[in-house]
Hints:
By secondary structure, this protein is mainly α.
Amino acid sequence: MYYSRTTKAVLLTLTLAVSIPALADHNNWQTCKEKQQQIEKQLQYAQANHNQKRINRLNAQKADIIQNCSNDDLRQKYTQKINKLDSKISETQRKLAKAQAKGDTEKTAELQNKLNENTSKLQQAKQNLARFEQAAKH
Length: 138
């Protein structure tokens, strides 16, 4: 089957538009190896479309990952994120208790929403770390 360059570009754009949001979440727990694999896939697309600027940028990113990426460093970042969220939750709980003691319903509702949001973020961060740990074993 023959496709024009324009058709190929449109198909590639549509494919990336659908896959990039999924990749954005996926990047939260990628290992160094997975980052390299993702760049390799993007390189294949760029090479298929003769996009030299993108090829150069991706090769630079790949070299940076090979030289500087460490799963230990990534693990530390994920753990720091969890610790930061734990601190935020503790602080919000303290403020919430104070607002409840004062009977400030508006502030209580605001802080409860903030607490719920940070608790959800913490749960996601823990899941991401667990997924990262699982992927790092392989």
